[in-house]
């Protein structure tokens, strides 16, 4: 069972195909979310639009709701959007120019924290093309150090996310944090990523990461690909997830990070998220 005081949250990822507006925020709060994770993608949340950022910031000032940020992973110059676009921004890309581009884009998103009270930012280290090596370790250390230095004065904590590739396994993330002496950097554990082939399962992930977990992305799949289904629609044993969360000393923010479906209305998202929270709290 969830510990008292743990924050239920929803990611705006569920509305990723649409321009984020306050109606979406209202819909997520109506489901019981006490924290909203804003997914930084310019077609969705344009962090370079001062007027748009100001509107979202005004909503947070008027509501007792916390905010977190997911780093941008899509190229701002993609053009017309569709769900078939693959992540293009990689903080540890082998090409220096692409690393710089990704770093600059993450910093642009973080600048929104001057108005929106983001408590943390979730970083993704690498893509499916990256393998674990001394080089990717060094590049990960550099990326975290730069983002951490930029985020800290804005009052934003840095988190690194478990991912379905070699660089960001639980063991490797702990190695990165240990080598870099990143004592204040936490981990975001993505349940769906840990349910994929070769990733060891959610129970092992919680056991390895322990109290380094500060945020949990709650999503399901069928053990074959990263689907971001609602909890209960895939093969994850959610009793193991809730047990893993309950074992963490300081209860983490638990974020429903669900795939975007064009046909889902705000009201339907509220209904589905409410049901998911009720099921997880049983």
Automatic annotation (TrEMBL):
Domain Xylose isomerase-like TIM barrel: 26-262
Transmembrane intervals: none
InterPro entries assigned: IolE/XylAMocC-like (IPR050312), Xyl_isomerase-like_sf (IPR036237), Xyl_isomerase-like_TIM-brl (IPR013022)
Lineage: Bacteria, Pseudomonadati, Acidobacteriota, Terriglobia, Terriglobales
Amino-acid biosynthesis in keyword set: no
Keywords noted in UniProt: Isomerase
Keyword Magnesium: no
Pfam families attached to this UniProt entry: AP_endonuc_2
Protein name, UniProt field: Xylose isomerase domain-containing protein TIM barrel
Record GO terms (molecular function): isomerase activity
């Amino acid at each position: 069972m969830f510990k008292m005081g743990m924050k239920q949250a929803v990611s705006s990822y569920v509305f990723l195909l649409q321009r984020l507006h306050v109606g979406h925020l209202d819909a997520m709060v109506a489901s019981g979310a006490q924290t909203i994770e804003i997914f930084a993608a310019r077609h969705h949340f344009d962090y370079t639009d001062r007027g748009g950022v100001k509107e979202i910031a005004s909503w947070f000032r008027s509501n007792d709701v916390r905010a977190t940020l997911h780093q941008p992973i899509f190229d701002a110059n993609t053009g017309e959007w569709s769900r078939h676009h693959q992540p293009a921004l990689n903080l540890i890309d082998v090409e220096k120019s692409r690393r710089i581009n990704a770093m600059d884009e993450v910093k642009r998103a973080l600048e929104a924290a001057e108005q929106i009270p983001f408590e943390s930012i979730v970083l993704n280290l690498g893509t499916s093309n990256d393998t674990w090596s001394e080089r990717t370790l060094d590049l990960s250390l550099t990326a975290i150090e730069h983002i951490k230095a930029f985020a800290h004065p804005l009052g934003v904590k840095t988190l690194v996310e478990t991912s379905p590739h070699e660089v960001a396994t639980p063991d490797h993330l702990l190695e990165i944090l240990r080598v870099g002496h990143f004592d204040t950097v936490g981990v975001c554990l993505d349940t769906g990523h840990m349910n994929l082939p070769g990733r060891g399962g959610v129970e092992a992930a919680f056991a390895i990461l322990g109290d380094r977990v500060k945020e949990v992305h709650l999503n399901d799949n069928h053990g074959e690909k990263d689907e971001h289904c609602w909890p209960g629609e895939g093969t994850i044993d959610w009793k193991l997830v809730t047990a893993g969360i309950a074992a963490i000393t300081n209860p983490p923010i638990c974020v429903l990070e669900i795939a975007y479906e064009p046909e889902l209305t705000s009201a339907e998202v509220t209904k589905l998220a409410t049901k998911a929270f009720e099921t997880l709290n049983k």
